């Protein structure tokens, strides 16, 4: 029962159409699933990933049209990383972000890796991170029809950054409940703040890290558009997920129980600082109900929503995701 790394990250957008344009046209990621928020079928849930939506490559967005601005603070998932193959790819990305007038900080170094910190149009806090020295969890396959060259393309999710005021309860969950181990730390870019701690699971590397930031100069985050809803960690299969549920119960951590998301099975819980974690199975995957060639082009509904398709489609704003073939 060792978590294999990061499975996906789910964030919030106020506008699915603009979100789709940015993540596919500018970042060159593939929309592998256009579906609904299963907890609110009146809005979209969009999944961007590699060529076939391998676990560990999915950045997803719930559309919440009336979401206000995010006020950053603690008790949050305050940063999401996107992996690129090597340092040379970052040189390409620096120019590309400039061409598309994306707000970014240029190439810098973080934890002995080259990175570019940048923001999407809703101020989602993102980082492109080089896999130049990665020896851990391998990346995925860049989308073959991307506007970004394959040798420069995004190949998966990198470390998620958590920001907390009181680190001990979060550390307890990461190390004593889950299977993360503290492996290193690096200086905070904020003067006067503690070093950022690095926690690793599974094979390690960029696809299996949590970076824990301790901040005593902030208030609690007020989430909205541009904030992260939850981070999910990879579990091998449903049998193992059931064992994880028993473990959470033995630790007296309230949890959702097993939830069928159709493309994977899930288990949700909040660690004591209020950050939402999900454990998710690697399969069955996004080709379960669509031809891999046409992923994301039509509205996909899990079978348990199919009888409501007409009602659901009538309530959604049109979003054309058809691609030329």
Q: Would you mind describing this structure in some detail?
A:
By secondary structure, this protein is an alpha+beta fold. The chain has one domain (6-315): 2,3-Dihydroxybiphenyl 1,2-Dioxygenase, domain 1 (Roll), CATH 3.10.180. The protein has helices at residues 16-26, 87-99, 167-177, 238-250, 309-315, and strands spanning 6-13, 30-37, 40-49, 58-63, 76-84, 104-110, 113-119, 125-130, 156-164, 181-186, 196-200, 209-214, 228-235, 259-260, 264-270, 276-284. The chain has an 8-stranded mixed beta sheet with strand order 2-3-4-1-13-16-15-14. Strand 2 (30-37) and strand 3 (40-49) form a beta hairpin. The longest helix is centred in the N-terminal third of the chain and has 13 residues, at 87-99. The protein is globular and about 55 Å long. The N and C termini lie far apart (42 Å).
Question: Which structural category fits the helices and strands?
Answer: alpha+beta
How far is it from the N-terminal to the C-terminal residue, by CA?
Answer: 42 Å
Q: What proportion strand? A: 25-35%
- The H/E string reads EHEEEEHEEEEHEEEEHEEEH
Secondary structure: helix percent: 10-25%
Number of helices: 5
CATH homologous superfamily label:
2,3-Dihydroxybiphenyl 1,2-Dioxygenase, domain 1
Task: Please give the radius of gyration in angstroms.
Answer: 19 Å
Shape verdict: globular
Unreliable residue runs: none
Reported by name, the CATH topology is: 2,3-Dihydroxybiphenyl 1,2-Dioxygenase, domain 1
What is the CATH architecture descriptor? Roll
Trace the largest sheet across and list its strands. Answer: 2-3-4-1-13-16-15-14
Number of strands: 16
| Average residue pLDDT | 97
> How many discrete domains?
1
CATH structural class: Alpha Beta
Largest sheet: 8 strands, mixed
